[in-house]
């Protein structure tokens, strides 16, 4: 299985490559990708350096152009596709049908992966993208159970890549507008969920409060673990009780499922977190490299080592991890 | 400008559904979308029964369209969608690309639902080539984006064949999940949800800790807390070339809402319907603001 790691800048890309990533995915410095954050991502110069660094060491670079362009920005997405092709990257990661059509027509030789933002959760959807745009691979949303992943892999006309580790989206990617409902910006339109510009923190007599465009997302007392106010991860009140009504701030960690994923024929494991640090990607890539190699050598005897799990827990959001939808009872 | 009635997004009892459509079939909507779009486990009507109901209603003067699940994971879910796509006569609204694949294989025309994520004219053009006849604009897009998309559609010479629909009234469907938030509220796993959403015919309101209505939990779907209400903007929609304003069924006052929309569109009546609203109105998305914002007076 291929290990696909995130890089939000050149030092992260080097750390990912040096720690064992087979492929690194990056984005350009604009809203053409789903991690459009200040200070993050690559311009043409750093992207060229990144491609050189990875290719010199026999690794691949994928470019995420995985938001949904509206007409006013269409040319920016075209330019991103052309620029990535000029850089000689190894694949484009695309969600939008218009962008897929453009890439397939103008750069047919450049492999296309369907982004997780393309929301393909069933075999008919995969067939659509394969037949229409010749996609080679699809990244599947974090909503499928392990049994559903296994079944999909049996029938899929393309390679499948699944998320292994990182922040957890509880909603089907590409189909979540909660952030734009609250702030006006969403992953689809702006490449951002719960953008930092909409976040306010305030100490009050009731506790520390986090707000998203004015809406109270959570309120913390002394000793509570404090988390970034992602729109779906606060404590809200439903029928008189106040709790994490949608999702708790936890991270996805599927390390223990590696043998089953390998057996199912999953070709790649994706690590989330282009917005995280050099240390994060180095540590996570190292653990997953060791785990994937260990699983490949001896799948039957594979067991997650405690030092792997501790290392991953130390960089997890909310410092807790979950199997997410892979684990049926979580659903 | 015509009115359409979206699919019922909540889990209602069979009798309630039958009575509802009996009422709506004589209302001023021109189009009725029928079917379960949220959760396959809701079985007041099975797919074959939706088709049967649609056929019966189809003889009574309105365009009846079958609407498919927005999130298709399990084989049984895909089976239900296939059943609707091979109904043999009625038009289908595809709410997932998987349904587009099934319909285009059968060389059938289709309506593209809001969750197909058509954000530009290039995507429209591609889907038109596959049988798209009408599209529902993504919920989060604005007036300006729609104007641009339709302008690009004219430049691509694809606007003649195309009908445009906009979600205009109701709690907006905003997200779909692996988790069932209604089951979670009752501390039940999804596999043993005991169909709790049957107890919430208008969903389950989720408030901030300051009592601000934020979202509405509806099984695996999360809806807006506020109610989209675009009637005050109907002239702009009409000028842009929108063909249908969609009204989403709510348990109370849907017929009155339809009538008020119809009176405003045809007889220039007022657009205020505040006494019919169970939650605050909003129109932020349409005006390029956060979706929850209210700009025009309801």
From TrEMBL, chain A:
The record's comment on protein family reads: Belongs to the peptidase U32 family. UbiU subfamily.
| Iron found in the keyword field | yes
What does the UniProt record say this protein does? Required for O(2)-independent ubiquinone (coenzyme Q) biosynthesis. Together with UbiV, is essential for the C6-hydroxylation reaction in the oxygen-independent ubiquinone biosynthesis pathway.
Q: Which residues form the signal peptide?
A: none
| A GO molecular-function annotation | metal ion binding
Specify the pathway. Cofactor biosynthesis; ubiquinone biosynthesis
**Residues that span the membrane, as ranges:** none
Native species of this protein?
A: Pseudohalioglobus lutimaris
Q: What does the subunit comment say?
A: Forms a heterodimer with UbiV.
Q: Which GO terms describe its biological process?
A: ubiquinone biosynthetic process
Q: Which InterPro entries match?
A: Peptidase_U32 (IPR001539), RibuloseP-bd_barrel (IPR011060), RNA/ubiquinone_mod_enzymes (IPR051454), UbiU (IPR043692)
Query: What is the protein named?
Result: Ubiquinone biosynthesis protein UbiU
Keywords, ordered alphabetically: 4Fe-4S, Iron, Iron-sulfur, Metal-binding, Ubiquinone biosynthesis
Binding residues for [4Fe-4S] cluster, per the UniProt record? 169, 176, 193, 232
The cofactors named for this UniProt entry are:
[4Fe-4S] cluster
- SUPFAM superfamilies hit by this protein: Ribulose-phoshate binding barrel
From TrEMBL, chain B:
Sequence positions that bind [4Fe-4S] cluster? 39, 180, 193, 197
Single GO BP term: ubiquinone biosynthetic process
In which pathway does this enzyme or protein participate? Cofactor biosynthesis; ubiquinone biosynthesis
* Keyword Iron-sulfur tagged: yes
Q: What GO molecular function annotation could you give as one example from this UniProt entry?
A: 4 iron, 4 sulfur cluster binding
Superkingdom: Bacteria
Give the Pfam families listed for this entry: Peptidase_U32
Keywords in alphabetical order: 4Fe-4S, Iron, Iron-sulfur, Metal-binding, Ubiquinone biosynthesis
Required cofactor(s): [4Fe-4S] cluster
Entry keyword Iron-sulfur: yes
Which NCBIfam families does this entry report, sorted A to Z? PRK15447.1 (NF011991)
- Describe its partners and assembly state: Forms a heterodimer with UbiU.
Q: Which family does it belong to?
A: Belongs to the peptidase U32 family. UbiV subfamily.
What is the documented function of this protein? Required for O(2)-independent ubiquinone (coenzyme Q) biosynthesis. Together with UbiU, is essential for the C6-hydroxylation reaction in the oxygen-independent ubiquinone biosynthesis pathway.
Name this polypeptide is given: Ubiquinone biosynthesis protein UbiV
| Organism name | Pseudohalioglobus lutimaris
Cite the source lineage: Bacteria, Pseudomonadati, Pseudomonadota, Gammaproteobacteria, Cellvibrionales
């Amino acid at each position: 299985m291929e290990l696909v790691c995130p890089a939000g800048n050149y030092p992260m890309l080097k750390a990912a490559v040096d720690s064992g990533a087979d492929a690194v995915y990056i984005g350009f410095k604009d809203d053409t990708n789903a991690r459009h954050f200040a200070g993050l991502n690559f311009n043409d110069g750093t992207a060229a350096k990144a491609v050189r660094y990875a290719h010199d060491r026999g690794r691949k670079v994928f470019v995420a152009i995985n938001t949904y362009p509206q007409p006013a920005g269409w040319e920016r997405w075209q330019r991103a596709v052309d620029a990535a092709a000029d850089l000689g990257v190894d694949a484009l990661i695309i969600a939008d049908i218009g962008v897929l059509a453009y890439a397939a027509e103008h750069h047919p030789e450049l492999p296309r992966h369907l982004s997780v933002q393309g929301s393909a959760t069933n075999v008919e959807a995969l067939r659509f993208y394969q037949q229409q745009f010749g996609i080679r691979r699809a990244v599947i949303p974090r909503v499928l159970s392990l049994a559903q992943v296994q079944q999909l892999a049996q029938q899929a006309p393309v390679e499948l890549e699944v998320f292994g580790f990182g922040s957890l989206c509880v909603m089907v990617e590409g189909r979540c507008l909660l952030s734009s409902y609250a702030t006006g910006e969403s992953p689809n339109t702006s490449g951002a969920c719960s953008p930092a510009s909409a976040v306010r923190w305030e100490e009050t007599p009731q506790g520390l409060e986090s707000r998203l465009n004015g809406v109270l997302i959570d309120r913390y007392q002394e000793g509570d673990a404090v988390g970034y106010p992602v729109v779906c991860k606060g404590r809200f009140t439903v029928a008189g009780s106040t709790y994490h009504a949608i999702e708790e701030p936890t991270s996805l960690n599927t390390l223990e499922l590696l043998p089953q994923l390998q057996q199912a024929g999953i070709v790649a494991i994706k690590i989330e977190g282009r917005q995280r640090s050099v240390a994060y990607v180095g540590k996570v890539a190292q653990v997953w490299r060791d785990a994937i190699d260990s699983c490949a050598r001896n799948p039957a005897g594979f067991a997650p080592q405690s030092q792997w799990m501790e290392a991953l827990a130390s960089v997890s959001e909310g410092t807790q991890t979950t199997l997410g939808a892979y684990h049926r009872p979580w659903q | 400008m015509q009115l359409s009635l979206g699919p019922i997004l909540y889990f209602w009892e069979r009798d309630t559904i039958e009575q509802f459509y009996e009422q709506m079939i004589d209302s001023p909507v021109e189009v009725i979308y029928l079917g379960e779009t949220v959760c396959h486990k809701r079985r007041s009507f099975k797919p074959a029964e939706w088709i049967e109901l649609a056929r019966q209603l189809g003889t009574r003067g309105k365009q009846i369209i079958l609407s498919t699940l927005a999130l298709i994971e399990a084989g049984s879910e895909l089976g239900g969608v296939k059943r609707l796509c091979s109904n043999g006569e009625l038009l289908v609204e595809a709410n997932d690309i998987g349904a587009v694949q099934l319909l285009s294989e059968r060389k059938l025309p289709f309506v593209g639902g809001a969750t197909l994520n058509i954000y530009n004219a290039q995507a429209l053009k591609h889907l038109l080539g596959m049988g798209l006849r009408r599209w529902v604009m993504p919920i989060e897009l604005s007036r300006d984006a729609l104007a641009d998309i339709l302008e690009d559609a004219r430049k691509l010479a694809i606007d003649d064949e195309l009908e445009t629909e906009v979600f205009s009234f109701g709690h907006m469907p905003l997200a779909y999940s692996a988790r069932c938030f209604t089951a979670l509220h009752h501390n039940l796993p999804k596999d043993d949800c005991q169909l709790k959403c049957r107890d919430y015919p208008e969903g389950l309101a989720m408030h901030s800790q300051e009592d601000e209505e934020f979202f509405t939990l509806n099984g695996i779907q999360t809806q807006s807390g506020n109610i989209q209400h675009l009637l005050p903007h109907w002239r702009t929609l009409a000028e842009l070339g929108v063909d249908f304003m969609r009204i989403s069924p709510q348990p109370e006052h849907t017929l009155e809402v339809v009538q008020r929309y119809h009176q405003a569109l045809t007889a220039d009546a007022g657009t205020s319907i505040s006494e019919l609203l169970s939650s605050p109105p909003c129109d932020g998305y349409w005006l390029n603001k956060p979706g929850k914002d209210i700009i025009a007076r309801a």
